[in-house]
Amino acid sequence: MSAGTPRSLPSSGQKSIQDICHPLSAEESALSRSPDVLNPSSSAGEKDLSLPNGTPVDTSSPASSSSLLNRLQLDDDLDGETRDLFVTVDDPKKHVSTMETYITYRVCTKTTRTEFDLPEYSVRRRYQDFDWLRNKLEESQPTHLIPPLPEKFVMKGVVDRFSEEFVETRRKALDKFLKRVADHPVLSFNEHFNAFLSAKDLNKRQGLALLTKMGESVKYVTGGYKLRARPVEFAAMGDYLDVFTQKLGTIDRIAQRIIKEQSEFLMELREYGPVYSSWSSFEEDLHDPLEGVAGCVSNCSGALEELTEDMSEDFLPVLREYVLYIESMKNVLKKRDQVQAEYETKLEAVVFREDKKTPVPTDVEKCQDRVECFNADLKADWDRWQNNKRQDFRQLLTGMADKNIQYYEKCLAAWESLIPLLQDKQEAKGETN
Amino acid sequence: MAEKGTNLLKKMEISVAEAEKRTGKNAVNMQETYTVYLIETRPVDAPSEGTNPVPDSLWRRYSEFELLRNYLLVTYPFLVVPPLPEKRAEFVWHKLSADNMDPDFVERRRVGLENFLLRVASHPVLSSDKIFYSFLTEENGWKETVFETGFQAKADSRLKALNATFRVKNPDKRFAEMKHYGDELQSVISQLLRVRALRSAAVVQCESLFVLDSEWSAIEKEMGDGLQSAGHHMDAYAASVDDILEEEEHYADQLKEYLFYADALRAVCRKHELTQYELEMAVQDLTSKKQQREELATGTIRTFSLKGMTSKLFGQETPEQREAKLKMLETQIEEGEELFVKSAWVDVERFKEQKDHDLREALISYAIMQISMCKKPLAPDALV
């Protein structure tokens, strides 16, 4: 970890076990501070909004809290310090070559950091490149939790890899990934990340060369040491992750059921509307009202279709993302166990050494360092993860509520506009009577 | 739903107030359970202050309503007679069992029967029928009175004639179109009633979201507050789902009435066709009989007729008899034409107007129901 000077972690550092709150407790760390820019009822359409990190807000749709949340980068650890690194992923494009067809995304960077040669970058990357980056981060920063990527493999027959919805869903997830890395006080200074953002051609072998150059590369070899007992706080993390995985599974199943029911209902609605249309075709006086009803029903089914799509595109992928995230987090926990186990084993060996007067070998001291660093990094990242997770899921639910509200508003508008049409002729008739 | 202030309804208020279960022995001496309905009538010009006079009332069962309607059908073949509610629960929704004893079904039937009586009472012609009046006022002996009219015999012969195939030479275009309309209306309403989508979208949504919310709030306590309120709102909404279902049933009932009305309309058209056919036959008969008379008078036999031969073989009728027969035929034709030209179409027109008005009202209240359903989750306290 030699690239640049990592910022000192503003997080708590080492605490005694009594002071550390249980991850499942209701009162969470004091680091969380809900941004007060979120006001779901404000109509952001008129104001010229920009978010705390300076990114201007594009409010093309009437303000819903979720559209604001989508663009907010919520890393409260920075405690209002000005950010100096902004990353976005956009502009997907299809590339067709003789060998293969694939999508690239534009990655834009704006920064004032001295680690970068230029203040702005714009490069094109494909999924493979993101995958490479993530692997590199995992390798080079094994004590940290690396954010997840969207799923790599898709069933070619089932999902259209080039459909707008799929590409957009992926783009959003990739954007989130880079933003999370950019906001991380340690990961954002990683040289692979730097290369990813700035290099014209991402030579994927480059990382290897850099690695061997590093003076003090820390290699956490899983030496097959056995850990006696996981410390309470980390055991609690492990438990939490297990429970959370289960719950995610439940939510996923429920969400899928909702989507299925909505789709079935949609099919029926699509049959229902046209019946009114065919009815109107053989009525005279009732022709317009019946056509009106048919139109209304078709508007409602359109709105329902959108709602179902949003559910599929926004809700489910986030759940899946977290499942992957949790997998990688569990691995990090295991690695930590390994490091601790190594230390404990070596320490034991030293304790039973014959010559008690010689100082503890540096080897053991290094191990102790490693354990302490790992623990500190992990704890800080855990807090950060909890925060992000809370934000993500709040956004998810608020988003879902918003989408539902929009759906009802659309249906309401459709039916309300029908009433005058239905009543109109009556009044006219009344007059002629 | 029915027009007020025509004929009978000007004089009396009619309602089907209650329904009750009875057990008794039926025609083959077996125990059976059936439902009876209380018909209440009250004179319209009851004193506005002071005591409310006790309404006259009597109990009738569904089969008696059926009897009344059959009588009306036979006696007024060219009127679109209002339909009765379903005998059995056919279009079953919301997983109700098709059980005639089910209280919801009985209640909806009560409403349907009341509607039937009000429709008849407000019909310009039907409302002054004596049998209808005694249906409302005379509990005992009504059945006998009906049978005494001899309508059964008429009904049987009509039924036979209607079932036979016949072809009209010059069918009346208006009636043919009306019959076609009845066919289409019946088909379209059946389709609507079959589609489960008459169930509101809101119901489907609500159930799912409710489950999702309550599962989630069990997961993360730190998000407790936001989710608890969402859970509560869903609770309140779920409670109002019952109201929604009821209103949907009401809409379905309105459609059903016109489904059955379509049937009645088609029946009128068919009867009209039959009458036209009979009229054509009668005219043909009259013509040939007149021809015969000519031939006999002048002594020339222009056409060979079997009747003429048999009458020669088996005895002739007297000229008086023959004249009488001819006169009868002529009257029959006159009456037929009278009925045919004048009365038949009038009620169809009346029905058309009623249908347009009623269905428009039904659509309006359907739209209003949809609006109130959409508004519920948008209420200010419902936002997460």
TrEMBL record, chain B:
Cross-referenced InterPro entries: AH/BAR_dom_sf, PX_dom, PX_dom_sf, PX_SNX4, SNX4
Domain PX: residue ranges: 15-142
SMART domains per record: PX
Top-rank taxon: Eukaryota
Gene3D superfamilies associated with the record: Arfaptin homology (AH) domain/BAR domain, Phox-like domain
PANTHER family cross-referenced by the UniProt entry: SORTING NEXIN-4
Listed name of the protein: Sorting nexin-4
Species, as recorded: Labeo rohita
